[in-house]
Design a protein that fits this description.
Layout lengths: L4 E4 L54 E9 L6 E10 L2 E6 L10 E12 L1 E6 L13 H11 L1 H17 L2 E6 L4 H12 L7 E4 L15 H14 L4 E4 L1 E3 L6 E3 L3 H13 L4 E4 L3 H10 L3 E3 L6 H10 L2 E3 L3 H8 L1 H4 L5 H22 L20 H7 L4 H7 L2 H5 L18 E4 L8 H5 L1 E6 L2 E2 L3
Parallel strand pairs: 2-5, 6-7, 7-8, 9-12, 12-13, 13-14
Antiparallel strand pairs: 1-5, 2-3, 3-4, 5-15, 10-11, 15-16, 16-17
């Protein structure tokens, strides 16, 4: 990352940056550099306040970022020579008015770059880690670490959190995690002890462990209630069971069961995401009305219309199958699976293309596992291949990811009242999505600049 230049705005002798004067009815706006600070007295009344007569210092913990440009992903508008003021972990001003910089604020100089909202990765799994012990395979190794060396598993997850933040992802939605792993990461990130994204989690999620038998309604609702009591931010449901050796999937819940899970989650105030790889499962999931549906290919125009009507976000996760295909030996997959992965990727891409053409809102989700962290934003290349402009892909990586969690008033924008999640990129993200993927130069999450 490029070095950040910090300075402080001082209200010294005759340089009162618009600090209020006294009670005599005037407000000092002078920037005169005269010998005794004539701008420091307030109107005709008493001596001015902070930065008043004769060069008094003022202090604040607020920060101000200077950016060459700031892009709004909602409409593509750009503020040149932008200023963003941060109070605690929130944004208090966005614009280009220098006088809005609080007296004594620390200045972060990113004026060589273009600012964007921190990105949202709508689908990750921080608990899936391997130390790559020779002779082991990732899926078996992560279970071994869980049972034998959980401290090592947590440490590997810490590295994944750092790698994720480096990509500009300041919010990650973990859709299936071990609680001791994710709770540790969240606590350390919140305390400023670890560089990582803001994490929302579904903990272990819900699957039909009795499959092919059905699950009683009382047990289904109980699983949702348990997620609520554990402190989950959302509910994750695995609606089909898939083989990583054949890529075949079978549904594991009926429509009525999925609808009960969706309704119960919403009654508990929790968003719900449903994993459904293939079209037959996805149709059931979409009809149930979740907040997001993960992965599917093979959905049709009717399904797309239902998603639009119900406000369901589509998280296609196309790139994660590219990741598996690029690492067949690492996962111990047979070489002949390469052709099947290629076929699935093309089906997934075709589905995303149709969904985009019909107006379905999509979110960027990497489904990052193991060594895939640090590649979180590669999904953007597939979204552009699906027909999105760079601006539309940027929306998928910000606004729509936030919307899938009901967080559209908290994250995904650089706006007053939002979390101070801001990244600086080199280049024009409105003309080339690779700028977002490859040229992240600075990252702020919750008002803290990451030091990598």
């Amino acid at each position: 990352m490029a070095s950040t230049i910090l300075a402080t705005v001082h209200c010294g002798s005759g340089n009162n940056e618009g600090t209020p004067g006294g009670t005599g009815g005037g407000t000092s706006t002078s920037t005169t550099t005269g010998t005794d600070g004539t701008g420091g007295t307030g109107g005709t009344g008493d001596t001015g306040g902070d930065g008043g007569a004769g060069g008094a210092e003022c202090t604040t913990a607020d920060k101000a970022i200077r950016l060459g440009k700031l892009v709004n992903p909602e409409d593509g508008s750009v503020i040149n020579q932008a200023i963003v003021v941060i109070h605690d972990d929130r944004i208090s001003y966005v614009g280009a008015d220098e006088t809005q910089i609080p007296c004594g604020a620390s200045i972060i100089d990113w004026s060589a770059f273009t600012g964007l909202p921190g990105l949202v990765d709508a689908h990750v799994h921080f608990s899936y880690q391997t130390d790559q012990e020779p002779g082991t395979l990732p899926w078996a190794r992560t279970t071994w670490l869980h049972n034998n060396n959980p401290y090592k598993l947590v440490d590997l997850a810490r590295g994944a959190a750092v790698a994720t933040l480096k990509t500009g992802v300041t919010t990650a939605i973990d859709k299936g995690a071990r609680d001791y792993v994710i709770n540790t990461l969240r606590a350390e990130i919140a305390a400023g002890e670890l560089n990582g994204p803001r994490i929302f989690t579904a903990y272990g999620g819900i699957s039909n462990y009795k499959f092919p038998s059905s699950v009683p309604a009382e047990e289904l609702t109980g699983w949702v209630h348990l997620q609520k009591l554990r402190g989950a931010d959302l509910v994750k449901v695995w609606a089909d069971r898939c083989s990583d050796q054949t890529l075949d999937c079978v549904p594991t819940f009926t429509f009525d069961e999925l609808k009960l899970l969706v309704d119960t989650s919403h009654q508990e105030g929790l968003p719900i995401a449903i994993h459904a790889y293939h079209g037959d499962t996805a149709k059931l999931a979409i009809l149930a009305g979740p907040d997001s549906v993960e992965h599917p290919e093979g959905i049709d125009a009717v399904d797309c219309g239902t998603m639009i009507d119900k406000g369901t976000i589509y998280v296609p996760t196309i790139d994660h199958n590219r990741y598996y295909n690029d690492n067949l030996a690492f996962f111990g997959y047979a070489p002949e699976l390469e052709a099947q992965f290629d076929e699935y990727i093309q089906e997934n891409l075709a589905t995303a293309t149709q969904a985009h053409q019909l107006g379905v809102q999509m979110a960027m989700g990497s489904d990052a596992v193991f060594t895939g962290f640090g590649q979180n934003t590669h999904e953007l290349t597939w979204l552009v291949q699906a027909g999105m402009t760079p601006l539309e892909a940027l929306r998928a990586a910000t606004l729509h990811g936030a919307q899938s969690m009901g967080l559209q008033d908290e994250i995904g924008r650089v706006a007053v009242g939002y979390y101070a999640d801001i990244i600086a990129v080199e280049g024009d993200p409105l003309t080339d999505v690779n700028v977002v993927i490859n040229n992240v130069r600075e990252v702020m999450m919750g008002g803290r600049v990451a030091d990598f």
